[in-house]
Amino acid sequence: MNLAAKVLTVSDGVIHGTREDKSGQALVDRLAAAGWAVADRTAVADGVESVANAIRALADGFTGVIVTTGGTGFAPRDLTPEGTRAVLDRAAAGLAEAMRLANPDKGRLSRGTAGTVGRCIVLNTPGSTAGAIECLDAVLDVLPHALALLADEPTEH
Questions:
Q1: Mapping DSSP to helix (H, G, I), strand (E, B) and coil, where does residue 123 land?
Q2: What is the Cα–Cα distance from 142 to 147, expressed in whole angstroms?
Q3: What is the predicted pLDDT for the residue at 1?
Q4: Nearest to 98 by CA among 156, 139, 152, 154
């Protein structure tokens, strides 16, 4: 199976040029190091509609993983989970829980979600570089199997 991924940074600061997209680049680097082909990397402003529209566009005709970074906390503009839930076909609570458990201290502050859109798995990770990588690493090993199941391919289980 070809392992394909896309990275979506959700940040008003990145969009307005006042913040460097360090977490998005870190996710691209980590995915590539793990053998994933990163097919796209983009950024959108915070907000339910901007996130929902971006995920829909990224998922259209794509099979793979879409990893978001940013907008999972408690700030008023942190609406990535709401935008993600608006487009999910099915939730994947176990993935979201595993990502939160990656950091027993700050993970409890993440509202990130996970689930499927078509043949994609969508993961919300925090905007901090360390948090994004911790969350991705918490589930990276099971993603190929999950994608095979989602594609209705034969698996060993």
A1: strand
A2: 9
A3: 67
A4: 139
